[in-house]
Amino acid sequence: MEEIFICRCEEVTRKELEEAIRDGAVTMNELKRWTRAGMGLCQGKTCAKAVMAMLAEKTGKPLSEIQPATYRNPVRPMPIGCMTKGDQDDDARS
Ligand code: FES
Question: What is the dihedral of CA 45, 47, 51, 54, to 10 degrees?
């Protein structure tokens, strides 16, 4: 059977999500922690709706009762100079 990637960032397949739900995951946070779906670069912007729909379907709950997972802001490397003020800002950008 062909693998269907639901979360492309973390390469989480439909089968892995179904197994996690079958093993007892009933919330988006549990699915996120068990499979890493939604923890990728896009932070679930691409996959969250599909994962929520799957969770609703497999648990028999209405989609409106499925709470989204908690999010953290993405971390990006920044030059240390961006944390200083005044003339040093200009130096950091060059
Ligand atoms: S596709 Fe799932 S975190 Fe980006």
Answer: 130
Domain boundaries, the chain: 5-93
**Any atom of ligand 1 within 6 Å of the Cβ of 52:** no
Would you state the pLDDT for residue 71?
77
Q: Under CATH, to which class is 5-93 assigned?
A: mainly alpha
Among 47, 52, 54, which residue has the most ligand 1 atoms within 8 Å of its CB, making it the best to mutate?
47
Three-state SS string across 58-80, please? Answer: HHCCCHHHCCCCCCCCCCCCCCH
Task: Tell me the residue type at 5.
Answer: F
Alpha helices in the chain (DSSP H): 14-22, 28-35, 48-59, 87-93
- How far apart are the two ends of the chain, measured CA to CA in Å? 53
Kindly report the pTM of this predicted structure.
Answer: 0.75
